[in-house]
Structure formats: structure tokens, C-alpha cells
Amino acid sequence: MIEYLSEIKEKALLEIKAAEDLQALDVIRVQYLSKKGEVSLMMGKLKDLPQDQRPSFGQKVNETKIAVEKALFEKKTDLENIELLKVLESEKIDVTLPGYQFYQGSIHPLNQVIEDVEDLFVGLGYEVAEGPELENDYYNFEMMNLAKDHPARAMQDSFYVDENTLLRTHTSPVQARTMLEKKGEPLRIICPGKVYRRDDDDPTHSHQFMQIEGLVIDKHVNFANLKDALLKMVKHLFGHERIIRLRPSYFPFTEPSVEVDVSYVKKDGSIGYIEVLGAGQVHPNVLKMGGYDPEIFQGFAFGIGVERIAILKYNIDDIRHFYMNDLRFLGQFKGVGK
Ligand code: DAH
Cα(318)–Cα(281) distance, rounded to whole angstroms? Predict the structure, then answer.
């Protein structure tokens, strides 16, 4: 019996040693240690032995059981380690591999110009105001001193939804809306936004484009303050070496009115000027309609075309490039505004 027991032990230990994976090991465990396993069955043989041999045989069976359990445990640990290594190996991350390249978009050049102008004026204490693109005739024209039969309306034909509602032709109506909102309080705002004109599209015209309006109303605002603001804007946008030239002009909502040109160096080295925006001191009628007493308050205003700035700044030959969503064009402006 004792011999048979040690044979079982030898056999079990050999099988355990040879087991290739955890499943095989479990089969061995069942074969020897389960209730009907070979080692357990030996325990059942106790009763067939003479009384005096039972304790020592029982002890041997127990020792065998413990030896098999120990071998199983050790082998299990080994196999688990091997398996863990395999997993670690197969899931290893190669940190030297180049990462995925995701396409990175960029801010549209027109929005870069707007953000750039906002940056400057917010720093000077201006608020950014907005108004609706679908506008009343009243705000778009009448509040801007363009009565129903005013001839200057002809230059700003638009898209009408009904007789009194149109796609705004400029951002100037935001002046009127803000004045009424501020109820006679001093104000300084800029308002960027889309505007519309009935125009045939070509390299320099678009039926839809963008403007940034500026308006300051306070006591003792004079023409020098306007010139200062314009010069700051031009230098901020185009560089500190630039200067501006003001030419008398006409807008119904400002008096006096000016057209603003910015200097540039021509190919032959001489100085040239390009028109960039319109501006002026707010017309007393506009102040009155907006709820400000022109005897106490003065103001200045300006309106600048966003596309025009971008065209000059980045040397663009066709305004329609801005609206085509062609990534070959847009991709050239990555990081330009930073
Ligand atoms: N609203 C004018 C336009 O679209 C631009 C303009 C000129 C705005 C003079 C102003 C200004 O505020 O003072 O042509």
C-alpha cells in the first residue's frame, strides 16, 4: 500500500511538472485531490488496514496530499507568471511609435481679423455688441439719418423680406440699438458681424461680407479721439510703421465724415495710400434719435470691412476665396493670428 501511495505521488509530481497550462493543471488536481481522486481514495483504504497501521498510513496519505497540493500550487504560480508575461508582451506599448496624425483645423482668416480687432478694443475698454442680421428698415436706415427717400439709400440696396425688413446692409444699426439700450449713458462699443448688399459677385465684390462697427459716445469726445482710435487700430492690424491719411467724405450718420487711408511702401520705395474704412463724428440727428442730447454728448464712429483688411493683410486676389471652404486656401492661415 505504502509503495502504491508513493507511486501515486511520483506520478502526480511528474504530471504536474509536465503540465503545459492551467487547464491541464486543473485536470491533474481533480484526478488526484477531488473526492474521488486517487489520493482521496487511498484515505478510504484506511479501514482495510489493521488497526495499528492506520495512523502511520493516514499520516503518509496526508503527506502525499500536502506534497501534491504544494506542487500544484507552485506550478500554478509558475504558469500564471508565464501567462502574465505573455499578456504583458502582447500588450506592450511602443512609446517610440509616431502618434496618429489628426487633422487640425484653424480659425478662419476673417474671424482672426475680428478677434484681433476685438483684442485691441477690449483692451481699450470697449464692449463687444451684436445685432440681428435680419433688420428693420427703421434701425438700418432711419435711425442712421437715412430717411425713406434719402438718395444715399441707393448705394445700399439689399435683400428685403418685406417692405420694412431686410438683411442689414451695414453694422451701423447696432449703433442705434446700443444707444437705445444704454439709455443716455456714455458708451464705447465695437460690433462685428455679417452684412448684405445686392451686388454681383466678382473678385472684389460679394453680396455678403463682414464689417466691424465702432461707436464711442461721451461728453467731450472730439475728432482727435477718433483719429487716435483709428491710428491705434491701423497700427495694430498692419504694423507700427504705418500712418493714416484722412480724406473728407460723406456719410449721412456722421458729420464731419472721413475716408481713412493707410500708408504702404510701393515697389519703387515711395509711399502710397489705400482706403480702408469710413468714419466720422456722430451726426447730431443720430444722437438725438438714440436718446442723447447733442448739446451735452458727442461721439465718433467708424465702420471697417473685415474682408478688406484680410485682403490687404494677406495679399488675397479674390474675395470669394474666403467663402469657398477650400482647405488649400484656409490651411495657409494656421497660427497666423497668434
Ligand atoms: N456704414 C458704412 C458703410 O457700410 C461704413 C461707416 C462709415 C460706418 C462711417 C460708420 C461710419 O460708423 O462712421 O459703408
Answer: 33
